[in-house]
Structure formats: C-alpha cells, structure tokens
C-alpha cells in the first residue's frame, strides 16, 4: 500500500553500517528522514549511537542513486525496463552454463544486504545454476577469525553478548581500533573501564584512543601477534597459572599444544615482536589475576598471511586459562559490516550451506536436495579471491556482484579491475554506479535498508528485523525481489510472498535457526543463534561444552615463520583501517553532506621520526608506491604512530588509495587478503 506522504512515520530499523547492530526508530515524512532515534528497548545499543547511525543516511535520497536498470551499449549504458534487463541476464546465464558448465558462473553476496537476501543468492548459485561459487565480503575481513574459532571451539561467532563483555574483569583488545570502528561497543568498554574497574590491555601498532585509555599498551612489530600471544600462553602454563580443571574437563590436545609452544620463549618473543619480557609478563599476570577475561580482535589480526593462525592462538590462550562458557569470558571477533555475520551464517560461502553445514556432509546436502528438488554440486566452490584468479585462468566467465564495490575494496585493485575486463558477462547490483559497476554489462538498481524488510545479524549473533520506512526509490527493488525474478526466469518459481517465508525455509533447513521466525522478532525483539525449536536463544555460548561430538574444545598447535617485514628498499609499513566518520572507503557515507564536509579526503598519518627522516611536513603531498601501484595523499604527522609505521585510512572520497598498494598475498588458510602487509616507498612531491 502507498504510504501517506504528509504524516510522520516511525519505523524500527537497524543501522546499515557496523556490526554492533544498533537499532533505531526512523522518523520519516515521505522520503524525508527527520531523525534516527535510538530507543531504550534497542537490544544492542539502548539509547546510544554513533555519528554514522545517527546522521549518515544521505545515501538514501542521494541524486547518485540508480533508479532504473542499465545495459551496456559500447562505452555507455542505456536505461532499460526491468524485463529487458532480467531476460538479458538469464539468457546469458543459460548460454554460459550450457557452453562452459555451471562452475563458469560466480556470485558475490553483500554484507549490507539482509540475511534472507544472502540466503537467496546462494540458493541461485546452488539450486538454480548448480555451482558452489558463492562468497561474501567476510573473505576480506573475518574469515580467519571464523576459521580460528571453528577449529578450536566450534562456532565462528562472538562467545557472548556485549553485556558479557561488560561483565569481564579484563578486556584485551588486539588489532582493533574499537573506538572508531565499533563506537557503541567501545563506549560500553570505556564505561566498564572507567566506572566499574574493568582492566584494559590494548595491543596495536597505533596508540589510538582505546590504547591511550588502556592500563597497559603493547606495541608489537607488524605481523607478529601470534608470537607474543603464544609466548604469554606458554609463560602462563610454565608458571602453572593455567586452568587445569577446565582443561581436564573440557579441552582436548593439551599436550600437543604445549609441545608446539616450545619455541615461544619470552626471549624469542621479545626479539621477534619488540615487546619487552617485562611487558609480556605483565600481560600474563593480568590474565592470571582476572577471573574473567575476554579478548576482542579485528582486522589488525585477521588481514595477515597468518590471520587464521593468530585467531587460533587467541582462542588457545582463552582455552588454557578457562575463559570460555561464563559471562565475562570468551572470544569476540568484532564483525565489520552490519550483516557480515549473517551473510556467512545464511550460506553465501563456497564450502558451507546455510548454518555452516558443510557441503562435504552428505546428510546436510540431501536435506537441501529434498527441499529444493535438485541434485546439488558437492565440488567446493571458488571464494572471492579464487574467482578473480579464475577469471585470469579462463575458468570463470560470468560474475554477479551484489552490493560490493570490489573494484575499490578488494586488494590490488589494478589487478581486480583488469580481471573484470576479461569477463564474458558481468552483472552488478548496487545503489550507485560504483567503480565496479562501471565495468558491468548490466547494472541493476537495488534498494537500501530503509526501503525494505528483512533481518540483519550483528556481531553478537543477534538477529534483528528491519521494516520498510519508505517505498523503494524510482524503479529500484530490494535484492530479494530481484533474485526471485531471476530464479523464476530460470525455471524456479520460489513463490515467496515476503522475506518472512524465506526465513521460515531457512529455519526448517538450518538447525541453528530452528526456532527463528518473524513473529519472534517483532519490533525490538531479537534472537541470538543458535535458537532451538522452542525459540530459546543463546546469548552466551559454550555453557554446556563445545559443539564437537565429545563436547570438548580442541587446542590447536601453533607455529610461526617470519613472513613479513619492511626491507631496505621500502620506507614505510602502511597500516590501514576505518575512521569514525566514514564507513570503509566511504561510498555510502560520502553521500551525507555534513560528513563529507567534515572529512572530505583521506590523509596518511606518519610518525615524527619518519617525517624528519624523509623531509615531510604537516600537509605535504606524498606519493606512496610499491610493485602493485601508487597513490598520492597528504601527510598528517601523528603521535599515534611510531618509527616506520604509517596509517592510511580507507576512506578517500568514495575511492580507496590503499588498495592500489595492497597485493595478491592472502591468509594461507582462508584466502583473506593480507591488507595489513603493505610495504611502500614514498616520494615527497612538494618538498619545502
Ligand atoms: Fe551503532 Fe555501528 Fe551504526 Fe555506529 S555504525 S550507530 S556503532 S551500528
């Protein structure tokens, strides 16, 4: 039904930016957004919010929004009717599948889209096309954390809720600029630290706000976190401070793990990480003295060649000290996008069906085969990184990317965009004509969160509903409707009347969502998976053991080989990440005028020492380059960074300077690009 344009409407929604999952009442009048009101009943945030959730909604009514489907004609796009665009896409899909087989097509889901949409894109790939080539942007960020947790404790999600984090006696933050990347979660830690005596240790290259506030700040050499974390674990065990009862009752492989720790002496750790033995002992003592310890981490850990192994080392440390299964304990990989948790949960991954049911698990596959009435492929699909490589190798001929500006956010974008040019057929579905869309054969106009119904899952595994505050702009459509149209044209009439039907199907097929339903998620109600049939959810994991056949966790042996360092030829290590005002490269946040005015461009933070050494001043223009590409930016001299370490924020007027410099090296277990391993040369362009 058409909504009344002249009345103020209040709609429950969930923030479209970070994984904290703040929810709001959106006050709108027609298409005008009057305010975003955080209300006390919002489960993740209460009355808190940050600048992005409160104000960064300029993308909704931006003039740059796509409102009609586009088809390429030579160098230009022409606007077409939906039918023409969809017929064209499905004819091409059929043709490519016939000629090259189903594995010549690839699909990339969006972590900005809803759970239901993530479910449907993997259903198109698996049921309609017959391939497991489907992935999402957790490949760029959190796959290593998921891997590290799956192999040790069995669930790749936060161990508890933000409430549990607040109950910790000690919080250790590693490789996360929490105050800017997860502002509301950081506020909760700040409050517990300041008012309730919670201890805080921060390990990071940068002395950012949380590091400033910490009781102890630890500065490791880039890429060496696995070493200091494992050295602390070894020292704790050597001193007999580990939790023997917990290990005896709940943990396997202790002896193999202890054996693997042998090389991680305090002396070796000091040499490799640059952290003094005294500091390492202080960390160990703080863990010994705390009854409840949580460790939070983010991209500073995962975006390395050993991202999964370092995440594993964190989980190992928590296991040997008995820090799982109680409030105030556990692992907290802080999820980046609003729905990066959900995109993986709902199956847009090349090796797992929805709910992390493996494609190698015959029973799980048959359940889906019965429900979907097709025989499913059990060949493991290509992940994002392999799809790009697959284009170069001639294996992947067609790519369908939803809400992901790969040509900006993937590492080594010169390499990635050249791959786009080699595709036989390229579909992009987005809000804007992104850098990626510029390479497409067909561009479909999608609708953002405020224009659709669905659910998002935040970093606490909390599933929350969003309701449409307004109609889709122009002829844009919610992604789920577009997917249904595509499936129908390819012979699968799914017949969903609304996203609630999609969730009902997922609940039937996925044990961790068994009791999830739209009725149980009305308004500000939420559920944290796993949710049993009766609708009981799990705010805190592992209270009754671990989800392995014997109910016991698995310590995983660790090892370390030096894999990254800045050589003589390069001047700086270019660390990178978010800033508070913008979300990533800013392709959504730059549409909000106030934010654009406040932070129009990016800069590079360099140390006083590096500035002096290379003749840089505040505001100097410099060229940063390496074998992958180059970027020009302005210098900001900062006390937050040290020596040869610099920091380049991701935002750059909707583009990204950093990904001209990032390379093709990835985490060895998950193929997550090693975005945080960037050595570069610099040239000062306006030396005074
Ligand atoms: Fe909350 Fe994150 Fe949105 Fe800020 S960006 S309002 S912290 S969900």
Automatic annotation (TrEMBL):
Membrane-spanning segments: none
Residues of the 4Fe-4S Mo/W bis-MGD-type domain: 8-64
Keywords recorded for this protein, A-Z: 2Fe-2S, 4Fe-4S, Iron, Iron-sulfur, Metal-binding, Molybdenum, Oxidoreductase, Repeat
Cofactor(s) listed: [4Fe-4S] cluster; Mo-bis(molybdopterin guanine dinucleotide); [2Fe-2S] cluster
Single GO MF descriptor: formate dehydrogenase (NAD+) activity
GO terms (BP aspect): formate metabolic process; respiratory electron transport chain
Gene Ontology CC, one term: membrane
Family under the similarity heading: In the C-terminal section; belongs to the prokaryotic molybdopterin-containing oxidoreductase family.
Protein's recorded name: Formate dehydrogenase major subunit
First-to-last residue of the parent protein present: 250 to 937 of 981
């Amino acid at each position: 039904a058409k909504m009344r344009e002249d009345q103020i409407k209040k709609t429950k929604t969930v923030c479209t930016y970070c994984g904290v999952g703040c929810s709001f009442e959106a006050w709108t009048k027609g298409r005008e957004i009057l305010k975003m009101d955080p209300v006390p009943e919002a489960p993740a945030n209460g009355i808190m919010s940050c600048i992005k959730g409160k104000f960064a909604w300029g993308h909704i009514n931006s003039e740059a929004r796509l409102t009609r489907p586009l088809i390429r004609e030579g160098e230009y796009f022409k606007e077409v009717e939906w039918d023409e665009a969809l017929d064209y896409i499905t004819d091409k899909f059929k043709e490519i599948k016939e000629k090259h087989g189903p594995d010549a097509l690839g699909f990339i889901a969006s972590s900005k889209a809803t759970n239901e949409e993530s479910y449907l894109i993997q259903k198109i790939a698996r049921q309609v096309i017959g391939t497991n080539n489907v992935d999402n942007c957790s490949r760029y960020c959190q796959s290593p954390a998921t891997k590290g947790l799956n192999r040790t404790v069995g669930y790749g999600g936060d161990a508890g809720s933000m409430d549990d984090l607040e109950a910790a006696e000690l919080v250790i933050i590693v490789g996360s600029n929490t105050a800017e990347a997860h502002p509301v979660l950081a506020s909760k830690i700040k409050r517990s630290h300041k008012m309730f005596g919670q201890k805080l240790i921060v390990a990071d290259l940068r002395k950012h706000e949380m590091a400033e506030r910490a009781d102890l700040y630890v500065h490791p050499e880039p890429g060496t976190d696995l070493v200091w974390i494992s050295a602390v674990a070894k020292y704790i065990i050597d001193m007999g401070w580990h939790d023997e009862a917990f290990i005896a009752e709940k943990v396997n492989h202790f002896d193999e793990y202890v054996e693997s720790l042998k090389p991680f002496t305090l002396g070796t750790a000091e040499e490799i990480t640059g952290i003094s033995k005294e500091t390492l002992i202080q960390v160990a003592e703080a863990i010994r003295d705390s009854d409840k310890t949580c460790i939070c981490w983010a991209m500073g850990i995962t975006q390395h060649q050993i991202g999964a192994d370092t995440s594993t080392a964190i989980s190992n440390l928590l296991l040997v000290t008995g820090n799982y299964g109680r409030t105030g304990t556990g692992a907290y990989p802080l999820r980046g996008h609003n729905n990066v948790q959900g995109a993986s949960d709902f199956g847009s991954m090349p090796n797992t069906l929805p709910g992390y049911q493996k494609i190698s698990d015959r029973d799980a596959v048959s359940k889906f085969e019965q429900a979907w009435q097709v025989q499913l492929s059990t060949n493991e699909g290509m992940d994002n990184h392999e799809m790009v490589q697959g284009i170069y190798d001639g294996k992947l001929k067609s790519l369908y990317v939803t809400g992901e500006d790969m040509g900006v956010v993937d590492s080594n974008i010169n390499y990635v965009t050249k791959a786009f040019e080699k595709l036989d057929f390229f579909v992009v579905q987005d809000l804007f004509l992104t850098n990626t869309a510029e390479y497409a054969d067909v561009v479909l106009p999608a609708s953002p969160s405020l224009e659709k119904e669905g659910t998002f899952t935040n970093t606490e595994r909390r599933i929350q509903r969003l309701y449409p505050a307004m109609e889709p702009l122009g002829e844009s459509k919610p992604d789920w409707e577009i997917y249904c149209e595509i499936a129908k044209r390819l012979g699968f009439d799914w017949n969903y009347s609304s996203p609630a039907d999609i969730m009902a199907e997922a609940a039937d097929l996925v044990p961790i969502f068994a009791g999830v339903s739209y009725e149980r998620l009305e308004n500000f109600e939420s559920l944290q998976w796993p949710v049993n049939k009766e609708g009981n959810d799990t705010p805190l994991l592992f209270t009754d053991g671990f989800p392995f056949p014997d109910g016991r966790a698995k310590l995983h042996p660790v090892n370390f080989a030096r894999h990254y360092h800045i050589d003589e030829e390069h001047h700086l290590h270019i660390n990178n990440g978010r800033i508070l005002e913008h979300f990533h490269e800013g392709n959504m946040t730059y549409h909000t005028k106030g934010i654009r005015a406040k932070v129009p461009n990016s800069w590079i933070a360099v140390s006083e020492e590096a500035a002096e050494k290379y003749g840089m001043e505040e505001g100097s223009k410099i060229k940063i380059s390496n074998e992958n590409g180059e970027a020009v930016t302005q210098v900001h001299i900062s006390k937050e960074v040290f020596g040869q370490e610099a920091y380049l924020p991701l935002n750059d007027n909707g583009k990204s300077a950093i990904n001209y410099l990032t390379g093709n090296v990835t985490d060895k277990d998950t193929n997550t690009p090693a975005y945080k391993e960037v050595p570069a040369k610099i040239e000062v362009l306006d030396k005074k």
